[in-house]
Amino acid sequence: MYFRLIRPSAPDFQAHLSLIKPAFAGSDMPKVEFDEVRQLVCDQQASFYLLTGKGIKLRFISRIDGERYHIIAMTGRGLVDAATHIIERVTERGYQSISYHTYRKGMRRILGQFGFKQVEQVRAFGDSQETVHQLDLRDNHG
Description:
Helices cover 35% and strands 39% of the residues. It is an alpha+beta fold.
């Protein structure tokens, strides 16, 4: 499993940004949210990664919030296979929990398979809702 940090100065930064845009598709304001997250990465308040391995090619943007590792956006293939590696890496770094925002019912199911619990409904709009899910690493992996 290989984690690559995609820095704003990287020559392929814009190409990777365009490939993470689908992560915002469930939002009622996808362009606004994408622009906000892009700015967080450019201001070095969030990190942008490419995770690759056998059957895995995921891009994700994350940030640190105290002792919590927060995944802001993720897109690509192989999430179910990659989740264990991400959880292990975050646990090794000493974080107490991982949180994840999502608009997608399918993602909620996947997160539940790995022990994430819904901790907040941020908002509802139309037939959709934005929820926050968290995995406590002290209880599940420590």
